[in-house]
Model the fold of this input.
Amino acid sequence: MRRRADRPAAGRRAGLPWLVRAGVAAAVVAAYFLLPLDHLGPRRPVLSWLLFALLLTVVAALLLRQIRHVLVNRPNTRPGVVITLLIVLSVHVFSAAYYALAKTPGELTGLGTRVDALYFTVVTLATVGYGDITPHGQSARVVTVLQIVYSFVFLTAAATALAQRMRDMVVRRPERDRRDGQDRRDGQAGQDRQGGQDGQDRQAGQDRHG
Done:
């Protein structure tokens, strides 16, 4: 009975990281569309570049930490959840940078809304390049090159570590199931032996009294 009761609890614990991931990702998207990004860009260039550099540095440091957790196989960590959220955050950081840069005439042709900025970021990340949005200004081209290098170095390494983590989980799960099955069989065999021994003891006691 206790094993059956533990299964729903284990399922709830396994589903909790997915709920947290979805909630944090939704919060990042909501913040991107709700924050006053119009006050950045040409109005406050120094503050804009400082925030951009700070956010990218924080995301890179956190990604490297999660990659290290995967490489050393650190227990009691969920790098899959954190890496996914950090990738989502980095995409929106670059999108905010492009949106702020587009406020300067001549920097980004064809980019006028936050959806355009997010679209251009994803297109650049996927190396598709439809040509409908073009970085003409020097600052826009610097940020575009930085996104390509950033994605190649950090996001690719993070995605590789995440894939390795998933492969390890797939490999370890059958082994864990086999061990659990063997433990259950050993426990049942021990109970059977104990039951047989108790029966022999009762029979021997009855024979002595008889």
